[in-house]
Amino acid sequence: MRVVLQRVSEASVTIEKQVKSSIKKGFLILIGIEAEDTPEDIDWLCRKIVNMRIFGDEDDKMNLSLQDINGEALIISQFTLHASVKKGNRPSFIKAAKPNIAIPLYEAFIKEFEKQLQKPVGTGSFGADMKVSLVNDGPVTINLDSKNKE
């Protein structure tokens, strides 16, 4: 499971010209799922993200977590995080999980994230053509891969 985590001052996702979800200060989480992903990957990533200390404290040092600031989260599925461009110029997405595998894992990720954050999160719609808007705060962008925990 791969995640691109962006610290944002605001973010939203629009589908068919309708805003589906929007947040203020918090995380925009883009998540790519592959067939080998498991509930352990979900648990590790959710715990890591909820507790990641990348928000400024009173001295403006990255010392506070999403929970510490009572921040929000917007979780968007993005199979293109598993793009391979080793051959040619057209990306291959062969490592990305097919919908029958990815959808239940995406939904489980959302449920576990809400449980650990202790509040609801915003989401996109799996497989939809989404327009994602954000104001990256910092900018701060962090890549996480549950297959590369060390």
From TrEMBL:
InterPro entries linked: Daa-tRNA_deacyls_DTD
Catalytic activity line of the entry: a D-aminoacyl-tRNA + H2O = a tRNA + a D-alpha-amino acid + H(+); glycyl-tRNA(Ala) + H2O = tRNA(Ala) + glycine + H(+)
Pfam families with a match to the protein in the record: Tyr_Deacylase
A molecular function (GO) term: D-aminoacyl-tRNA deacylase activity
Primary enzyme class: hydrolase
EC number: 3.1.1.96, 3.1.1.-
Broad class of where this protein is predominantly found: cytoplasm
Superkingdom in the source lineage: Bacteria
Location of the motif Gly-cisPro motif, important for rejection of L-amino acids: 138-139
Coiled coil: none
Keyword tags: Cytoplasm, Hydrolase, RNA-binding, tRNA-binding
Record localization: Cytoplasm
Similarity field: Belongs to the DTD family.
Domain remark from Swiss-Prot or TrEMBL: A Gly-cisPro motif from one monomer fits into the active site of the other monomer to allow specific chiral rejection of L-amino acids.
Subunit: Homodimer.
Function: An aminoacyl-tRNA editing enzyme that deacylates mischarged D-aminoacyl-tRNAs. Also deacylates mischarged glycyl-tRNA(Ala), protecting cells against glycine mischarging by AlaRS. Acts via tRNA-based rather than protein-based catalysis; rejects L-amino acids rather than detecting D-amino acids in the active site. By recycling D-aminoacyl-tRNA to D-amino acids and free tRNA molecules, this enzyme counteracts the toxicity associated with the formation of D-aminoacyl-tRNA entities in vivo and helps enforce protein L-homochirality.
Protein name in the entry: D-aminoacyl-tRNA deacylase
Source organism phylogeny: Bacteria, Pseudomonadati, Bacteroidota, Flavobacteriia, Flavobacteriales
